[in-house]
Design goal:
The chain has 359 residues and is an alpha/beta fold. The chain has 10 helices and 10 strands. It starts with 19 loop residues before the first helix and ends in an 8-residue tail after the last helix. It binds erythose-4-phosphate and phosphoenolpyruvate (PEP).
Length: 359
């Protein structure tokens, strides 16, 4: 018996989606890409375990909307990553899913054509193509895990995962993180609450059983082992930064009190820069200063950076999409490539003498 007056009354359609296996078969992991992911995750685990003295930096566009410009950015970043690799471990920020405060473009996977056609099937495949391309360059990728199903399609190409400020308190995202193969950075809440991120790290470190899909796209009870590489990302909140010495100390005490490793990443963007991209290098400089003065808990940083500084709105008129400025963000404003190079070279130079003796 069909009951359209009772069931799925607010669902307009169920459109077919290729399974993870189908997309993997079209775009298989190559040996070079697998090496990038293995090496990337190993470097990050080493930093979190304090066997690798470097600072890791997740740097790249607020969101990827144009894979051509994204790859152009990735090639520049790879050259810079090699140059500073004795001091900084560089991970490219490859964000395909955007959590919105209310509404807005939800990212390349959700709407790859940016025209409200919401071709998630196309977005997922093109996202995987892009991740493969940058892994082939030898560059590790970091992303925000938002949709709990997407990791089955892309997870083998990711080295670092963020759980965002809007989802750190969500049980679904804690469960998901407990099964992810990468280290996971949990952001403090948008209101600045660090406690929810500490609770998330504890929760994700445990085993969970929950509903998901397997690689064949079939509903499955997912049983996870727990992820012991959860760590805290301070991103500021309620319009106020939280990367200062006192905030970092208090956050570290909260982690220690929960019996967790005291591993803290500073997101130099978002509320830590008052959403003013030009402030990001100053925040990074402050993180470097804290390390130079003996801080032991800061192990990573994040920068929102693109080829061209600033951001631009997505035009309502599809015909005007071609007029978008190449290499400029369509979500949060970013620093330019030149500013990125300068900030990272300076950070590397100022950390070179202090990091090796830090463990
Ligand atoms: O980093 C990205 C944005 O800050 C986040 O997606 C929220 O964006 P919004 O407040 O513009 O929706
Ligand atoms: C959405 C993001 O950050 P946050 O969760 O800190 O707002 C982001 O980094 O894109």
């Amino acid at each position: 018996m069909t009951t359209p007056d009772i069931d799925n009354i607010n669902v307009a359609a169920f459109d077919p989606m290729p399974t993870p296996d189908e997309i993997h078969a079209r775009l298989p992991l190559t040996a070079v890409a697998a090496r990038t992911v293995r090496d990337g995750r190993a470097a990050l685990r080493g930093i979190l375990d304090r066997t690798d003295h470097r600072l890791f930096v997740v740097v790249g566009p607020c969101s990827i909307h144009d894979p051509v410009a994204g790859l152009d950015y990735a090639r520049r970043l790879k050259a810079l990553a090699d140059e500073v690799s004795d001091t900084l471990f560089i991970v490219m920020r490859v964000y395909f899913e955007k959590p919105r405060t209310t509404t807005g473009w939800k990212g390349f996977i959700n709407d790859p054509h940016m025209d409200d056609s919401f071709r998630i099937d196309v977005g997922m495949e093109r996202a995987r193509r892009f991740l493969l391309d940058i892994a082939e360059l030898g560059l590790a990728a970091g992303t925000e895990a938002l949709d709990p199903i997407a990791p089955q399609y892309l997870g083998d190409l990711i080295s670092w995962t963020a759980i965002g400020a809007r989802t750190t308190e969500s049980q679904t995202h804690r469960e998901l993180s407990s099964g992810l193969s990468t280290p996971v950075g949990f952001k403090n809440g948008t209101n600045g609450d660090v406690g929810i991120a500490v609770n998330a790290i504890v929760s994700a470190s445990r085993q969970h059983s929950f509903l998901g899909i397997n690689e064949c796209g079939r509903s499955a009870v997912v049983r996870t082992r727990g992820n012991r590489y959860g760590h805290l990302v301070l991103r500021g909140g309620d319009g106020r930064p939280n990367y200062d010495t006192v905030s970092v100390q208090i956050a570290g005490e909260a982690l220690a009190k929960a019996g967790l490793p005291v591993n803290i990443v500073v997101d130099c963007s978002h509320a830590n820069s008052y959403k003013k991209p030009d402030q990001q290098p100053l925040v990074l400089e402050n993180v470097v200063n804290q390390i130079r003065l003996g801080n032991r808990s800061l192990i990573g940083a994040m920068l929102e950076s693109n080829i061209v500084a600033g951001n631009q709105p997505i035009p309502d008129d599809v015909a005007k999409l071609a007029d978008l400025t190449y290499g400029c963000s369509v979500t949060d404003a970013c620093i330019s490539w030149e500013t990125t190079e300068k900030a990272l070279r300076e950070a590397a130079a100022r950390l070179r003498d202090v990091l090796p003796g830090r463990q």
